[in-house]
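[stage:ingest] chain + small molecule (flavin-adenine dinucleotide)
[stage:ingest] validated
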Amino acid sequence: MLIRDKFKNKNPLISFEIFPPKKDYPVDTIYGTVDALNDLRPDFISVTYGAGGSTKDTTVDIASFIKNKYDLSALAHLTCLTSTKDEVEETLNSLKGKGVRNILALRGDYPEGAGADYIGPNHYKYAKDLIAHIKENDDFCIGAACYPEKHLECQSLDKDLLHLKEKVDAGVDFLITQLFFDNETFYSFKEKADKLGINVPIIAGILPVLNKNQVEKIISLTGCTLPKKFLRVLEKYEHKPEALREAGIAYAIAQIIDLLSWGVDGIHVYTMNRPKTTRRIIESITNIRGVLANEEAS
Ligand code: FAD
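[stage:predict] done
[stage:export] tokens:
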């Protein structure tokens, strides 16, 4: 099923992100993870595309496995910066051939040391160029990325939002956010996006933090900020890994409950391929939603 159609029937969506095994590891090492996540019956599972297209084929294979074995909607990430237009076309054909109809269309990151001349006429420069191409030639459902705290390369959030508006107008059906730890940042971003007429659903990306190294790496990769209350948790439990893990899961659950109360379009859990953690989070939300549904019915 196309993800854009799911927003019509049900709100909010719950989805998960997984990443393919590293090169040289057999692709089926991920299938146990998919199996466990399928038990939670999310609205879709997304599969990342390794930096520089390093997991091109496995991303397609895993997305196809999710769709065809479990009858679950799969969202295949696809980056364009490090592939030629012909190579992108090959991947699109391969997805089509395997029945995967949902794409998260991304630019990707520049390889280290790449200069201004890296992009030639055979490449798409921005995600919006890839999106316009897909929209013109096919009928995929297209998702794209957005950044509540702005993209690292952009000078300001206002400029980034103008670029986002162009991207959405090129043919985006829904957006998924970069992870964030302060919901107020997301609410303010959503308000600004609304004012610009960015009116596709925006799914909030949530990462359950499990250890301190993970947080440090994420901050350097994404530039996201940590609110004081989260910094306190990190400081308090920094040398108690088990407690930090529990606090990280509890923090993610609290964030999600707040987002659901606010009326978010969807929650996308960055699972880090950890189905047990994901299960704990989803079960907590499901219990709350179940109680609410019962109370409303009585
Ligand atoms: P774009 O939307 O093209 O934006 C990139 C930059 O260009 C921004 O700073 C934007 O402001 C600027 N820009 C856009 N249009 C213009 C214009 N007309 N003029 C000047 N500047 C402009 N990376 C992977 O490698 N694999 C993945 O699977 C992956 N999955 C992701 C999933 C999510 C939900 C998110 C949030 C990110 C993901 N990324 C992934 C990271 C992403 O590839 C990087 O953040 C990348 O640097 C930007 O990609 P984009 O599609 O957002 O680019």
